[in-house]
Specification:
Oligomer: homodimer
Number of domains of chain A: 1
Number of helices of chain A: 6
CATH superfamily of chain A: Winged helix-like DNA-binding domain superfamily/Winged helix DNA-binding domain
CATH architecture of chain A: Orthogonal Bundle
Structural class of chain A: mainly alpha
Strand content of chain A: 5-15%
Radius of gyration of chain A: 18 Å
CATH class of chain A: Mainly Alpha
Shape of chain A: globular
Order of helices and strands of chain A: HHHHEEHH
CATH topology of chain A: Arc Repressor Mutant, subunit A
Distance between the termini of chain A: 27 Å
DNA sequence: AGCTTAGCGTCAAACGCTTGATGGTTATGA
DNA sequence: TCATAACCATCAAGCGTTTGACGCTAAGCT
């Protein structure tokens, strides 16, 4: 029987993602930051003031997972919860100065990983890879 | 400041992988099988008789995670642990007939997902994507 | 206005995985 | 031969996440 799953695109995709994520985690570890923390900080940075539940949707995780991360980052003084002006029950998430500094340091590491990959591929192939990956995402989304 | 992580290749990679994995999980759910189960069964199928620890290395997880999955699949009668001929302490992992049948059904679903993606991309672009992904894996591995 | 609906945040329990440590088994080398 | 090292499997504890349920707040509808 066939069952040759070894040379499928989705397996190559999985292995590449796993390798990249592992490398990021390793590089981020000396900074005392997990990849999930970096992702959350970066999301809040790019879209400040949104609620935890909204953030959870963008990151494809549950609101509780976000709440857990927020609690930790708030404890470190990198993130702060403000009261939403209209909805008293909702909390706006914002970065503190310390949070911005931590994000800057972490992003330097992440950008280095990214650069290493894109240089290994070359500029045009990197762009093409991104195009193909986006197309995969789009194809899968409306499956 | 720059900090534009949104249009990085590694983010596109992450999102694509997440989307594909989520879709697989959804499609596999009606069969009562998780993606991790499918992966394990497929690995055992492609290389029968290897030990749990060895399997863990290929899947990039811990031996305990494999043991947990094996215990569950053994309970379902889809997998069996045989005694290694030389090392009495080691266990060879083999598929049962029921395991092979379950794998066949699951692989049909997975192959369908794969087909949907490759058809959305076209044959040559699919091949190119796989090449690029493998190159990313290789680049990252010796970073 | 009052009622229903929808959305956010949080608590509690369950699940899966990792880390660390232990015991058992085979191979290697003095 | 005997001791050391290497490897596998397993147990126990800790951590992060998901699932399910509850209370609370704001908006939409009659």
């Amino acid at each position: 029987m066939g069952l040759g799953a070894l040379d499928r695109v989705t397996w190559a995709l999985r292995r590449a993602e796993l390798a990249v994520q592992t490398l990021k985690e390793q590089r981020l570890r000396p900074l005392g930051m997990a990849a999930a923390h970096y992702t959350l900080l970066m999301s809040v940075h790019s879209e400040p003031g949104l609620a935890g539940a909204e953030l959870a949707r963008r990151l494809n995780v549950t609101p509780q997972a976000v709440a857990s991360l927020v609690a930790r980052l708030e404890g470190r003084g990198q993130l702060e919860r403000r009261e939403h002006p209209r909805h008293r029950h909702v909390q706006e998430l914002h970065l503190t100065d310390a949070g911005r500094e931590a994000l800057r340091a972490a992003d330097q590491v992440i950008a280095d990983v990214e650069r290493h990959i894109t240089e290994g591929l070359g500029p045009d192939q990197s762009a093409q890879l991104r195009t193909l990956l986006d197309q995969v995402s789009k194809t899968v989304r409306n499956a």
